[in-house]
Specification:
The complex is a heterodimer. By secondary structure, chain A is an alpha/beta fold. Helices cover 39% and strands 18% of the residues of chain A. In chain A, strand 4, helix 3 and strand 5 form a beta-alpha-beta unit. Chain B is an all-alpha fold. Chain B has two domains: 96 residues, Orthogonal Bundle (Helicase, Ruva Protein, domain 3), CATH 1.10.8.640; 72 residues, no CATH class. Classes of the chains: A alpha/beta, B mainly alpha.
Chain lengths: 178, 181
């Protein structure tokens, strides 16, 4: 009985150290806020188009097939980093990618897409950032995977890396039958 | 340093001391005309986390998103929302993490109960410790000399033997006899 009591602090230490080790090695970013919107319908929003004469983007556009909604801005450096991933999703994986231009000068958005390529089927311009608040956006880029019923199934805050592509987005799109 | 420089330095120091508190992030153009609504907006803002700079409230933060959220809070208040409704609006979009003070519910009950729980465990440990000690003392466990009942009995027996045993070497008691007793 005595011995057990003396071993208790050691056991407690190992438990705590083990927990820390798991958290450290998991590669999870603790400053990332889990989305409150997962498995909930996409929020109500309606945005004007970036290119005059084209269609804008609103909630109704998200119904009917799985899609990806990407919040971007020309002034956002990580958006440049992830852009090839979005191009790949649209061109090679055949995914429907929608864009929300967040607090960006339309001319700058257009120049950005001209330079890097335009993966977006539709682009909505969120000049005052209000639609982004509906989406729970707190930093660009943010990317959502929406199922055919218009429900948010996945959210990535920050640039999409190869790991997020292979481990999360592509398997989910396959599961949703994109 | 010349006298003029000293005067300037002193003036700057006094000026800094007289400045009203830490500068706030709330811009004059954000402030509502109705002081009661503005006061409520400030109260709500102090409890809402700025998600860009996660340990500041939107009331303190200069981040652009914080400004957007401050304006949103004021807009909702002007539209007639209660404080609770405004917070629920934000929680619906950003999750409970947006509140600096987590509400008591099923997922946070451990967090809230932990201090009381730890004090309880500590008190229980101390109580059990003292109770066991008293029980051991009553049951003849180690007393303040650190000897168990068995050990004390053995000492008594040894002492009794030395006193009562016939001395082979004659009637004269040894020099240590008294000590031994």
């Amino acid at each position: 009985m005595r011995r057990v009591i003396f071993l208790a602090p050691l056991a407690l230490f190992l438990l705590v150290a083990g927990y820390f080790a798991v958290q450290l090695l998991s590669g999870r970013d603790p400053s990332e806020v889990p989305s409150a919107l997962i498995d909930r319908p996409a929020p109500e929003f309606s945005l004007p188009p970036l290119y005059a004469g084209e269609a804008g983007l609103s909630t109704a556009d998200l119904n009917g097939r799985p899609s990806i909604v990407n919040v971007f801005a020309s002034w956002c450096v990580p958006c440049r980093v992830e852009h090839p991933m979005l191009m790949r999703l649209a061109e090679e994986e055949g995914a429907t990618v929608f864009g929300i231009a967040y607090k960006d000068d339309p001319a700058a958005s257009k120049a950005f897409l001209e330079e890097l390529g335009d993966p977006y089927a539709r682009i909505g311009v969120d000049a005052d950032g209000r639609a982004a608040i509906e989406w729970g956006v707190y930093g660009v880029p943010e990317t959502y995977v929406i199922d055919a019923d218009g429900r948010i199934r996945y959210k990535r805050t920050g640039p999409i890396g190869p790991r997020h592509m292979e481990d999360d987005i592509l398997p989910l799109l396959r599961e949703l039958g994109s | 340093m010349s006298a003029a420089r000293w005067v300037i330095a002193l003036a700057l120091l006094l000026g800094a001391a007289a400045a009203p508190g830490p500068a706030h992030a709330v811009m004059p153009d954000e402030i509502l005309d109705d002081p009661a609504l503005e006061a409520r907006a400030r109260e709500i803002s102090k409890d809402v986390r700025c998600l860009v700079c996660q340990n500041q409230s939107i009331d303190d933060s200069n981040a652009e998103l914080a400004r957007d959220l401050r304006l949103l809070v004021r807009e909702r208040l002007e539209a007639g929302d209660s404080n609770v409704e405004v917070k629920r609006f934000l929680v619906d979009r950003y999750g409970q993490y947006v509140l600096l003070k987590p509400p008591v519910n099923a997922s946070t009950i451990l967090l809230w109960a932990a201090p009381a729980l730890l004090v309880g465990i500590g008190l229980a440990t101390v109580f059990v410790w003292f109770r066991n000690r008293r029980r051991e003392a009553l049951a003849g466990g180690p007393d303040e000399t650190g000897l168990s009942a068995e050990e004390r009995a053995r000492i008594d027996r040894l002492l009794a033997e030395t006193d009562g045993a016939p001395d082979d070497r004659g009637a004269e008691p040894g020099p240590n006899a008294r000590e031994r007793r």
